[in-house]
Amino acid sequence: MYSPRKVVFGMQPLTLASPVTALSGIKAARAAQLEKLSIQTLYDLIAYFPRTYEDRTHTAEIGSLEPGVPACFEAMVVASPKAAHIRKGLDITRLTVADSTGKLALTFFNQPYLSSSLHYGETYRFFGTLTLEPYRQMLNPVFEPVQSAGRVTGRLVPVYTLTAGLSGAVLQKAIRQALDACLESLPDILPEQIRSEYGLCGVRAAYEAIHAPESWDALARARTRLVFEEFFIFSAGLQRLRASRTDAACRPYDISGAGAFASALPFRLTSAQQHAICDVLRDMASGHPMNRLVQGDVGSGKTMVAAAAAFCAAQNGDQSALLAPTEILAKQHFASLSALMAHFSVRTVLLTGSMTAAEKRRAKEAIASGEAQLVIGTHALLTGDVTFSQLGLVIADEQHRFGVSQRAALAAKGVQPHLLVMSATPIPRTLALIAYGDLDISVIGELPPGRQPVDTFLVGEDMRARINAFIRKQCALGGQAYIVCPAIEESETESLKSAELWAETLQKTVFPDLRVGLLHGKMKGSEKEAVMDAFAQHALDILVSTTVIEVGVDVPNANLMVIENADRFGLSQLHQLRGRVGRGARKSYCVLFTSSRNADTLRRLKALTATNDGFRIAEEDLKLRGPGDFFGSRQHGLPLFKVASLQLDLQTLSQAQSAAEAALRDPSWRTAPEFAPLRMRIDTLFREEPVALN
To answer: What is the CATH number of the domain that holds 167?
Structure first.
């Protein structure tokens, strides 16, 4: 059992905020190494958790050792150690050990002193990994005399992420010193009633066990506590953000005329669209700024929700701004929405970087005067010379393409404007609550009537000729095909289809009679525009592209998607790409090429062939790959958890969210001493100024 002791440096007791140089043996050079791991204080040290553990608790026999599997075993030295100097900087020590099941050669590098540490005829406990190259042996195992086992073996050993020049032993020693010095002063942010309700251990027991677990059960209890704490802190922080948001006030919209919008449409809205529109209108009438995410599958009709919101803003005398990630998408929105909004006498204006100076000037004048009621544009909307007369609604399309700062920059052009963000990347609801926790969420979970599912097939190279024939047939019938490659240029290290090389090959040798185009992210904006326009106008039969088409213009005539090296993409991204087809009346198809024979990879890809439901696919992707496929960086919303895994800990996440909601509803939350550490930790997470930990 852990027994704390008071540690002092000089005459001053060490605290959580003490620098690492206050510890014995940590000089400036070592502190610089630790700083590379973001470790500067003693708290940083004890909060630097292991990435995995070596199980040295079970002892095997030499005869049962498996190559590549770390294991402990007891054996007697049967051939005395022999050291040899091979060359400068390389000494090798070899010996042979044996038990009742066989013998094993051990090889140590640059440890000549072992000749006096391992004695013939004595028994030791070893831990290492068997290799068969160039013969059956173990390289550099750790060891200790069997009569004093327990320091090196017989326990779970933490393994930490290291940096150059910093050994695991040095880091563990520093962490041990920090734990001894100040673990007892570590505040427990979880009040006792919460720990009791959810069966959680105290924070000090958790930190001790995470670094020096006595058993797998003790480690599991410690990890559960720390996972819960991370989710609890973040959930409570988001609750506070929401509370501060609702404290903000704005002019409530009159939504009495909103019914005229739906009744005037030439088609019927789906039930899911109607629900989302109701959510939006209720927010806009509340007297508080709306912050809502509308997420729906590709083609689910999110744009109509945005149009309804813009209509409501115009009815209330406010302007709306729709921010699109590409010029192609901005132009598409302008083409569809300007015609629609004209029926309601709402003037729509486009502003993009490629417009002429005169076009930009006229657009900016219309925006500044208020004549432009709905403004659609790209990042050009964010420039300082774009001023709005009365901006009341900000709409961000394809939310995952924008950072928080870009949304805020546009919102700053108004006074407490409503914010509506849209995403066509389906996200499991539990993950969405974390990723977009500061937003209310509406889900459009159905497709408009008449939308045909896309038939999806998983094939290998043996089907290449048949698929090429199928491409030719679809083009002959008047259809068009996308062919997506994972790389732009030919790779020297990997056998990936490159867009440039493959487009050239297809045009010259496979489809010389068809019109083949090329599109990738390194092309100039004007070049990409020209290629996509050509494809949209059916001046091209086949478009070879990278994932730049993931967010792109609708081409209803395109009915075939072929994805090369499909195993290189996540399921959600594959589904997003597949959504580029099936937008017209033609029967549509998606073909996934892979050379992989990995069972897990094939099982993952087959999940895509079984359904067109983006939310089911997202759930499967989360199980198989974790959340990284949804978000590429922190600015897109995903918090960086130290211990918690959104892939493994969804149940704990749900519990922590419920506990945080209950805690913040407690009237004593703002003043009670038991909540003080929690309030301090939330401050640390949700504001830039550092907060003292003790």
So the answer is: 1.10.150
